[in-house]
Amino acid sequence: MAKTILITGASSGIGRAAAKRFEREGWNVLATMPDMQAPHGLVESDHLIIAPLDVRDVGQCSQAVATATARFGQIDALLSNAGYGQYGAFEAISSDQIQNQFAVNVFGAMNVLRAVLPGFRTRGQGLVLVTSSAGAKVGLPTSELYISSKFALEGFFESIWYELRAVGISVKLIEPGGVDSGFHKVADRLTAAGGGIEAYENLYGRIVANRDRIIASGELVSSDDVATAIFAAATDGTSRLRYLVGEDAEHLDAAVRNKPEAEVLGMIARQYGLSELAPDAPATNAPH
Question: Which of the residues 17, 110, 167, 227 has the least number of beta carbons within 10 Å of its own beta carbon?
């Protein structure tokens, strides 16, 4: 019997690539998205259906689970992928924008998880895959809302790993670095930049120039690469929690784990053209 996965945020990028990959591998897929009218490039079939789901809407989360269950019998896995980023200085970002960032990236993931858990728990098995970010380990300039939402997401899912494992449910965090998807276009469109505050405008301009340079370097992984990593995590049969995707993700993870804090802060500052903000290296015998 084919397994079934519910995927959120499947209209583009990683979610769309994952929907196609799981279908090719013989899974049943419920591909969900908040706007059914938006172009998504998915084609419904006997094994793939598309349904509306705004993860902020608890009722729609329950309905998506009901739809998948009615069509395919049960849900075996969830890919909690819906999310977005926005750039800008904190002072320039409105309270509504802040609330929505967490409503989608964090509370939305909780809403969908709550909807699938009763079925998983009753059967004593289930798999929860979460699209996180390598950036969930370190702050990045003028990306504080997106990054903090991923910090929160990782704290929640690492904590709940224990109670879910106790009832037969696995949790896996997928942590890509830079991805060649629509993410940056959305974040650029939503940017608050420096909000007209001169000190921030100058800083933001320098950061954008270096961010664009990084994106244009061609070192980003593709959405298909991430989908491959997600499928591998879904089928490796282990209790492993985190999966890094991309050389930049691996380098960042190694730096955070092995280098003193000042070195990591300096590394990020220089990467974004802010060398003058890099802290002095700590003394050899200084604790860190």
Answer: 167
Q: What is the DSSP letter of 134?
A: G
Structure tokens at 79: 């890919």
Per-residue model confidence (pLDDT) at position 214 = 76
Catalytic residue flag (residue 146): yes
Contact between 151 and 136 under an 8 Å Cβ cutoff? The reply is: yes
Annotated catalytic residue, options 84, 87, 146, 200: 146
Q: Residue holding tokens 């990236």? A: 105
Report d(CA 104, CA 53) in Å as an integer: 11
Tens digits of residue pLDDT in 177-202: 988 877 777 777 778 888 888 888 88
User: What separation in angstroms does the CA of 152 have from each of 106, 135, 145, 226, 264?
Assistant: 7, 12, 11, 21, 21
Residue 284: predicted pLDDT: 45
Rounded CA-CA distance 228/241 in Å is 17
pTM as predicted: 0.92
Q: Determine the longest span between alpha carbons in the chain, in angstroms.
A: 64
List, in order of start, the domains of the chain with CATH numbers: 4-192+221-246 (3.40.50.720)
